[in-house]
Design goal:
This protein is an alpha+beta fold and about 190 residues long. The chain has helices spanning about 1-25, 25-50, 70-75, and strands at about 50-65, 85-90, 95-105, 110-120, 120-125, 130-145, 150-165, 165-175, 180-190.
Length: about 190
């Protein structure tokens, strides 16, 4: 079931741009696509050039108990281990943007790899240097139990709480019964 769902979503994500290209963009759509592409390239290149180096440490994988049979919960790896590196920055609006590469153990204990870009609007709590935020990450991921390890795209919501250089971040993987419904939690240290 979960493989079929992921395959369907991946095919839909890959087919959508192709269907737009076949139909042919109108002038305003072409300008919008060009503008969106140029903005994305600008954000990524600015983050690469001006961002600080960041260390990612996967900490915990929480499978929501209501969504899984107990024998599955008992068999899953909760401590993913692993490590990641990235570059991140706070942009002119005070929002965090960053690119990253992480490797860790998936729920079955097998190697999993992801490469992505995150954007998290943040708000500082008073004068405390504590920032909270909620945003998105887009990524390519490789897992042995999906597509035989062939990388697939994804987009997930991300939440962040940070104090100075240290952040605790989490992504939510939606799902159904006995798949998805997972919080993936990691720590992030920014070297600056």
């Amino acid at each position: 079931m979960k493989k079929a769902l992921v395959q369907s979503l991946s095919c839909a994500m890959l087919a959508a741009p192709a269907s737009i290209a076949v139909a042919g963009p109108s002038g305003s759509e072409e300008n919008w696509m060009r503008s969106a592409w140029n903005t994305a390239v600008d954000h990524v290149s600015t983050t690469w050039r001006d961002g600080d180096i960041e260390l990612y440490v996967p900490l915990y994988t929480w499978h929501l108990p209501f969504a899984y049979r107990q024998e599955l919960l008992d068999s899953y790896t909760e401590y993913p281990g692993g490590i990641g590196l990235g570059k991140g920055r706070y942009n002119q609006n005070g929002n965090w943007e960053g690119m990253y590469a992480m490797g860790f153990r998936d729920s079955h204990g097998d190697p999993s790899f992801m490469l992505g870009y995150g954007w998290v609007p943040t708000w500082e709590l008073g004068q405390s240097q504590v920032k909270v935020g909620v945003g998105l990450t887009g990524f390519l991921m490789s897992r042995s139990d999906y597509f035989g390890g062939i990388p697939f795209p994804g987009v997930l919501p991300v939440a962040s709480v940070s104090y100075k250089n240290l952040a605790l971040q989490a992504a939510y993987v939606p799902g159904g019964q006995n798949n998805g419904n997972v919080f993936f939690i990691w720590g992030k240290w920014t070297f600056n």
